[in-house]
Automatic annotation (TrEMBL):
Entry-linked SUPFAM superfamilies: HAMP domain-like, PP2C-like
InterPro entries linked: Bact_Sigma-Reg, HAMP_dom, PPM-type-like_dom_sf, PPM-type_phosphatase-like_dom
Domain of life, source organism: Bacteria
Upper taxonomic lineage: Bacteria, Pseudomonadati, Pseudomonadota, Alphaproteobacteria, Hyphomicrobiales
Record's protein name: SpoIIE family protein phosphatase
Residue stretches in coiled coil: 505-550
Organism: Rhizobium mesosinicum
Pfam families, alphabetized: HAMP, SpoIIE
Record flagged with keyword Glycoprotein: no
Length: 785
């Protein structure tokens, strides 16, 4: 009865119950109020922080896009300005010659004496034009209507030929040291339009091939209709220039000589009295130079740029951007001698792009574009470049190209969403911690109140004195029980405790002996378990050794590698553990040869078992006459998938095969990149990611398997490897890598297959040094004799 009475619930009328109700209620109310206020403040702080961070990140992201567009526009403008400066420099030299006829004649005569190849012409009977021979610094072409009946240039044309040779002195330096230009040239006035270009090209011959009839037509009207007349208008009234600059650029067109899309920059030359046109100085740049700046635009992950004329024709954009904006390209001769590029925003399949305004800057624009049947929001900013004089066809007009930057909103706002998510997560954690703190406080307060109520009783002193005597090892002490309330129950409990302490103290030696015996029994049991564990380890080691032996036994024999007279085959495999997960095999059947390589996930016994399954199934299929590469992989996967399901091995493998019929190699399956070393030392890397999927993941992989034909000529080498080669580490954590593998393969391109494998493995082991090998290493070389 005394043992049970100490665990009775608190009675409502007791002092302890009153103490608990008053003190505990007050503390509980305080905790709930303060905790509720703290939670409310945390939630409010989270909302305010999310709003402020969101506004700041959105403004920063948009400012970043604006700054990026400004810097890219400045790069394009700088490139154009550099070309302008170079053309102006050439035009300045030629104009100075025109303004000083006596010096012009002297310079022309001097060049004629020192470089006769620049002015000595030969008549072409087929083309009916005259042109200087190769070897000169520039080529000068004189059209048929500028020649006499004896095929010699007319006197005034002969003078232009000699005086224009000053181009040989100036153009090479400008081509070498100025901005990157395709060519620089001089074209004579409309009545004598000789064409001198540096560097030398087969100029007239190319014109004959691409522009039939040009030799019988006026040069300026045939190639650039309206351009010369515009310049003559400028000579009469300079205010008629659309832009206050002599430089005139063309819209992009196809160059007759190189076949590239180019932009030409002309600087008209004036007569000494400045009343008429005396020809032009010019330079060409490829559209690649403009496109490179624009196509290198990369904002966020998939943002891109474009460069467009004021009429919406896009002259520079990368392939991803062209598809996103719904553009299509077409050539447009426009009835002129040059072919332009037409890729207009106005013909875009995206309505939002077709209506995009380029005539003014509008800051950040938000557009929705169709992608895979969904509306995807984008941010677009358009920057106008400085205005220039432009000829397309007809009179020269003012042109101000526009640079656009297009970015998906989801990417530019990615940091905003991430910040909001982190704030939300932090808020949730704080709320949870606050609730836990409140609960913990309640628990602590409850324990404290109960403890205090127990201590604040009338019998506390008696219990304290008795406790001191117990501490002094007087285990005979007993508390006098004066009442039957809580204090009395505590006294009874104390007396029972004192009795138990006395009993255990008196019987301590016996208890120590019993515990010692128990410990000895436990030590004997542990020794027995250790012996069993050692026997089990020896058994497992034996099994692994057997598995390793079996794995090595199924590798191709030396005579199998030499079965084909036209091929040298060498291989090397080293498992990271006793049993590896790499696979390679060479299967022959008549005139057919199949070489396989694979890598099971992980290494160890299970990986080795799966590798043996692959070897067995592959040989069975090959011996059964399965010659179709796609069906071979599909059937092999089907058999392995069923075995994996049956054995519950959580493994799969990358696997690729080379089929050789004596002429070419056919590659199938997904594995590491295949390295092809051509006889001339050229390296080709063949990606296998699109030729299949890992074996053992799906029951049917027929829709994923594809083939790739590899031309295999005499002296060529094919390297197959697992990732244990390229991902091998040295002591500094550096990877061996594909670049180092290719460099070693190129160095050994003239060696035998055995030498290639042994030298690469030696280089690999030297690279690894004392570092631990973490993955299986397999390397296989096939050389065409």
């Amino acid at each position: 009865m005394e043992g049970r009475s100490s665990n009775r619930p608190v009675r409502l009328g007791s002092f302890r119950a009153k103490f608990i109700l008053v003190v505990g209620g007050a503390v509980l109310f305080d905790l709930l109020v303060s905790g509720g206020l703290a939670l409310w403040n945390v939630q409010r702080l989270s909302r305010d922080a999310t709003l402020e961070v969101g506004q700041g990140l959105e403004a920063a992201s948009q400012e970043y896009v604006r700054t990026y567009a400004d810097s890219t526009a400045a790069q394009v403008s700088l490139l154009l300005r550099q070309v302008h400066n170079d053309v102006s420099a050439l035009a300045g030299v030629l104009q100075a010659q025109i303004d000083d006829p006596e010096r012009n004649t002297e310079v022309g005569a001097a060049v004629s004496r020192t470089s006769p190849g620049s002015v000595s012409l030969s008549y072409d009977q087929n083309g009916k034009w005259a042109q200087n021979a190769p070897g000169a610094a520039s080529v000068v072409s004189v059209w048929g209507y500028l020649l006499e009946q004896d095929h010699k240039p007319k006197p005034d044309v002969e003078t232009d030929i000699q005086t224009s040779a000053v181009l040989d002195l100036v153009a090479p330096s400008l081509l070498q040291h100025g901005s990157s230009k395709l060519q620089m040239y001089y074209i004579g006035p409309k009545e004598r339009p000789i064409f001198r270009t540096a560097p030398y090209t087969d100029q007239a011959q190319t014109f004959d091939r691409l522009y039939p009839g040009h030799n019988e037509a006026d040069f300026w009207d045939f190639f650039f209709p309206g351009l010369y007349e515009s310049w003559q208008g400028w000579a009469r009234d300079s205010k008629t220039r659309p832009v206050a600059d002599d430089i005139t650029q063309t819209a992009p067109y196809t160059d007759a000589i190189t076949g590239k899309l180019i932009v030409s920059f002309f600087h008209p030359l004036w007569t000494a009295d400045r009343k008429d046109v005396a020809g032009t100085a010019g330079a060409d740049i490829t559209l690649d130079q403009l496109a490179q700046i624009v196509e290198n635009v990369k904002v966020a992950q998939s943002g891109f740029g474009f460069l467009a004329m004021s009429d919406g024709n896009v002259v520079a954009i990368n392939g991803t951007g062209e598809k996103t904006l719904g553009l299509s390209s077409a050539s447009d001769t426009g009835g002129t001698g040059v072919t332009g590029l037409q890729r207009s925003l106005k013909r875009s399949s995206q309505p939002a792009i077709a209506s995009l305004a380029l005539d003014r800057e509008q800051g950040i624009q938000h557009l929705s574009l169709q992608q895979d049947g969904h509306e995807v929001p984008y941010i677009v900013i358009v920057k106008k470049l400085p205005a220039t004089n432009l000829w397309s066809t007809g009179p020269v007009r003012q042109e101000a190209m526009s640079l656009g930057v297009v970015v998906p909103e989801r990417e530019i706002d990615a940091s905003l969403y991430a910040a909001q998510a982190k704030i939300s997560d932090a808020t949730n954690r704080i709320v949870i911690y606050q609730i836990l703190a409140i609960l913990m406080s309640l628990l602590v307060v409850t324990i404290a109140v109960f403890a205090a109520s127990k201590r604040i009783t009338s019998g506390i002193s008696a219990l304290a004195d008795a406790a001191k005597r117990i501490q002094a090892k007087d285990y005979s002490v007993r508390v006098a029980i004066a009442s039957k309330d809580e204090v009395g129950q505590a006294g009874e409990a104390f007396n029972r405790m004192a009795e138990q302490i006395s009993y255990h103290t008196e019987n301590l030696e016996q208890l120590v002996e019993e515990r010692t015996a128990q410990i000895e029994d436990a030590k004997e049991e542990i020794s027995t378990l250790n012996a069993q564990l050692q026997r089990e380890n020896r058994r497992l080691g034996t099994e692994l050794a057997v598995a390793e032996r079996i794995q090595l036994m199924v590798l191709p024999l030396h005579q199998e590698l030499e079965a084909f007279q036209t091929l040298e085959i060498a291989a090397y495999m080293r498992p990271a553990e006793e049993v590896g997960g790499d696979y390679y095999d060479v299967l022959t059947s008549g005139s057919r040869l199949k070489i396989g390589i694979g890598d099971v996930t992980g290494h160890g016994l299970e990986s080795g078992v799966l590798m043996l399954m692959v070897q067995s199934v592959a040989r069975a299929l090959h011996e059964a006459g399965n010659t179709d590469a796609v069906k071979f992989l599909t059937d092999l996967n089907s058999a392995l998938f069923k075995n994996i399901v049956r054995t519950k091995i959580d493994k799969h493998l990358t696997l690729a095969f080379l089929d050789y019929d004596g002429k070419e190699m056919v590659l199938s399956g997904q594995h590491e990149e295949v390295v092809v070393v051509r006889a001339n030392g050229e390296i080709e890397l063949i990606d296998t990611m699109d030729l299949g999927i890992p074996i053992g993941l799906e029951a049917d992989i027929s829709s994923f398997v594809k083939t790739h034909a590899i031309a295999f000529e005499k002296g060529d080498i094919i390297l197959l490897h697992t990732d244990g080669v390229t991902e091998a580490e040295n002591d500094d954590g550096e990877l061996f890598g594909m670049e180092r593998l290719c460099r070693e393969a190129r160095r050994l391109k003239d060696q035998s297959a055995d030498k290639v494998v042994s030298e690469i493995v030696a280089a690999l082991m030297l690279f690894i040094g004392a570092h631990k090998i973490h993955d299986d290493i397999t390397l296989l070389a096939v050389r065409h004799r």
